[in-house]
Amino acid sequence: MKLLVCATEYYPYGSGIANVAYNVVEKLKEKGVKCTVCSPTGPDIKLGSTKLIEKYRIFGLINYWRKVSDYFMKNSDEFEVVWCHNPFFLNNNPFEHCLITMNSTYYGNAMNSNYPMKVRTYKKVVSYIEKYSLTHLDPTVRYTGVGTNVCKELECMGINQSRISFIPNGVDTKKFKTQSTKVKIRKKYNIPENHLILLSVGRLTEQKDPFKLIDVFFQINKSIHNSTLVIAGRGVLADKVKTYIDEKGVNNVILLGYVEEDSKPELYACADYFIISSRYEGGEPPLTLSEAMASGLPCIVSNISNFDVVNKANCGIMVDFKDLQRAGNEVVSYLEKDNSEHSINARKYAENNLDWEIIAEEYMNIFNAI
């Protein structure tokens, strides 16, 4: 099979879309699939501009997909199947046999009333563009969502349920695993060796709600003085988060900023717990939660449907981060228990359900059916 993969980001440049595309592609190559990847950074075909996407967002995305459409209008016959990630085809889709994977939707983001008015208005406008780009395509196009909520959002846009499949995010369980060098790794990142470490990984954006995370940890640290919150990731709210921590006077918070993908496994391995306060996610589970579970970390997550896997795997707790006092009390109570069983459960679930080998096979089945 000759497969073309089109995405606006690709490993090692990017995060969610980049990681899903890359890890599945690597597994497909092992199965004998000939993969060609087209993104602003290649590696096989370079179209569009990462800088343009970062600076102008939707306009940069539209520019990339317009270039894809123009470039492959005369070259699409070279490939048997095309895999597009979160496309914005405002003109014609040049591909006859096409699978579209949605890692999240602007439609779902726009429905969240907790965003500031300016952000919500932008997302709502983009959601109309997104809806048009996804619903005017040929009826033979298939869709997958990395979360059941994403699949429902596609239905709400007008796409028939029979054309939509749910395939979750995966994880490399050989790469993300428990390690015995916890103290050594903590020294590397200047993390207190004898503290209880709560790790949060991800972009600092509105949907991740990092301020609620800081507020709840403030409550936790009052009761558990030797607790430290480690936040790895950058984003539009990075400076505001740092200022908020300083102004609120929250102790024991370490902001690592961007951490290279190759360094993430050891960072998870040196933590005691994983914590995330998102108000919206596309993935079910998100990539960071998959990585944390594979690393054997008990998980403390917000009570949104994307994190239901925590209850299903019996590997942590779900809390309402909007109720700060209650959330703080619930987390403190949880941290004071022996949660070694949750650690074992997390790892076992990831191995049995989320390994990229399993996920790639699900995609392969759809490619064969297109």
UniProtKB/TrEMBL annotation:
It comes from the Archaea. InterPro entries: Glyco_trans_1, Glyco_trans_4-like_N, Glycosyltransferase_grp1. The keyword Transferase applies. Gene3D superfamilies: Glycogen Phosphorylase B (3.40.50.2000). Keywords: Transferase. Residues 15-174 form the Glycosyltransferase subfamily 4-like N-terminal domain. Signal peptide: none annotated. The keyword Transferase applies. One of its GO terms (molecular function) is glycosyltransferase activity. Residues 184-347 form the Glycosyl transferase family domain. This is Glycosyltransferase family 1 protein. It comes from Methanohalophilus portucalensis FDF-1.
